[in-house]
Amino acid sequence: MKSVLLTSLLTCLVSFSYTTFAFEDTYKLGAGDKIQISVYGEENLSIEELYINNSGKFDYPYLGQLTVLNKTPEQLKSEITKGLKGDYLISPKVRVSVIGFRSIYVNGEVKKPGGYEYQPGLTVDKAIALAGGFTDRAARNKVYITQSGSDDQKNRVKLTSRVKPGDIIEIDQSFF
């Protein structure tokens, strides 16, 4: 029994880690995200937690001001590695990880409208559940998403649609 539970737990952890890492390969950093920058063997070049502000810029030792908005963690890693290689380090080992995603917002006919922390794999129905579920007046077939950085264009979506960090979900009111 213990071995079955242990195997199940390890399977869940591995699949979650894979999902998170696969997501980070395509994920574009934005204001409100938190990242960690690690340079192996160089604590003075590592940053435990960096909150990305609206400017999307931060000062990094030896490299000056870096811009992170709309870059993937891999692109930022490459930029830092390239900047440190040669003059500062022979072969820098850099890792950039997303440790906190920008919030999503659920508005309209839900019991607890507001901002909620994004989680990889989040769908519209799960986001609505985070917001306490539908109210009695909710039009369950009139759910819209305004995606972060999409010029405020609302798109009608299904409850099984994926949510991205920064998305705004809006549930309309029904007539009955």
From TrEMBL:
It comes from Vibrio hepatarius. One of its GO terms (molecular function) is polysaccharide transmembrane transporter activity. Transmembrane segments: none annotated. Residues 104-148 form the Soluble ligand binding domain. It comes from the Bacteria. This is Capsular biosynthesis protein. Keywords: Signal. Residues 1-22 form the signal peptide. Residues 25-98 form the Polysaccharide export protein N-terminal domain. It holds the Pfam family SLBB. InterPro entries: Poly_export (IPR049712), Poly_export_N (IPR003715), Soluble_ligand-bd (IPR019554). PANTHER family: POLYSACCHARIDE EXPORT PROTEIN GFCE-RELATED.
